[in-house]
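Progress report, Aim 2. The chain analyzed during this reporting quarter is listed below.
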Amino acid sequence: MADFATERSNPTGRAPILVASNRGPVSFTLEDDGSLTLRRGGGGLVSGLSSIDDPSCVWVCAALGDADRAAVRRSPEGRLDLGGFEVGGQAVRMLDIDPGTFNRAYNGIANSSLWFVHHLLYDTPVSPLFDERFRREWESYQAYNTAFARALAAEAAPGAAVLVQDYHLSLVPALLRELRPDLRIGHFSHTPWAPPEYYRMLPDDVAEAVLNGILGADRAAFLTLRWALAFADCCEAVLGATVDRDALTVTLPPSPAEGAPAGRTVRLGVHGLGADADFLRTRAHQPDVDARLAALRESVGASADGTPRRTVVRVDRTELSKNIVRGLLAYRHLLRTRPEWRDRVVHIAFAYPSRHDLPEYREYTAAVQRIAQEINDEFGTASWHPLILHVNDDFPRSLAAYRLADVALVNPIRDGMNLVAKEVPVVSDAGCALVLSREAGAYAELADDALPVNPYDIVATADALHRGLTMPAGERADRTKRLAAAATALPPQRWFLDQLRALD
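Predicted structure tokens for the chain:
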């Protein structure tokens, strides 16, 4: 990939390749003595950008808290030189956006409106309400996207490639194209995309603006073909665009609404982000993971006859779309209807905090904790705790649970991909049956060797758990090998580079 970057290097000192995302590759902590410590982030984007051997590339992101803002204010123009800090040596440009503007854009629009629409999460008899408050939040979302577009325009070399990430920045491609028509722009959606009848719950002007914003890109990419076609359906229904579903293109009308990119044809792409096998397998056998695995084994223990108990594992954020509550209810149904599993299985559930600025998420986390306690109260004995719940984030402990799992439960209501479904088979020590929602993006790649479930059907999910727990060891191991191969088919580095090459 060094050749790609070098070809487009230039004497201006500006970047030939740029990434834009709400969250960047690093975050800062402000220490008591006023110093700043830096922490590397995780995820496919960080791994992907690390594959580019060119220090002139730039990652543009938002400062997410007071420590990040302090780091920005101590750096010239918010450009943080992180050479050698395991992100390929690229610079990071953090944007110190007004906290009120950021909060309204991030929590009000991105996470309370766009996320809810694409994950079909609204309780429609009472929400959404698009009122005056929403309009103030929408203005902030426009300002937030404008700040990103201006920063990218200032950083980009002539003809640079810009990869804009996710629903937080859906307006950026069109705004950036107005400022810098010479750039090659891609947008990638990490979420599902809503079908037109649901998407049109958004106010008409907002629904149009989001679509037109993404269509400012040369190429709009998605995790699965299903989400790409749903986006195309929305473009056709809302904008009157012409869609070629075989060629995967969207062509706007010659005289669209004001501000839309008239007559442009935008290519759609599909890139199913895979698990980083080398990283996961190495990290999963470090001493801190081994120590947590030993602690989990001790907590799980053995049944009264000395047989090691089986395990059902889930690792999620307490995100509404992850469907943790129904997963717990399915486990309770298993114990109620199949008493042979009492004292013989333990459900290890890690439900890490997410978006606690929003009341719906605080209430959901409380519901998870309440139902977990009810299960332990109903079935637990002096020697058996049927459910182990942790709500504090601990990545080494998650990897230990992956290694230990006999069954992995991944049952989201709707998910763009769900990397947990791909990571568990890669890390599993002895093979793991995967109970997988058909509404997860990963289902498109893993369905043949998973145990598929309707995420709303608690009884069927309990049956799938039973099937996974009783699956013969040889079958489980064979399925796991095939799942791991499918899960790692497009590792983060190639996923990222494929998108860059597709902009040529």
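Residues 132-155 form the longest helix (24 residues). Residues 1-12, 83-88 have pLDDT under 50 and may be disordered. These observations will guide the mutagenesis work planned for the next reporting period.
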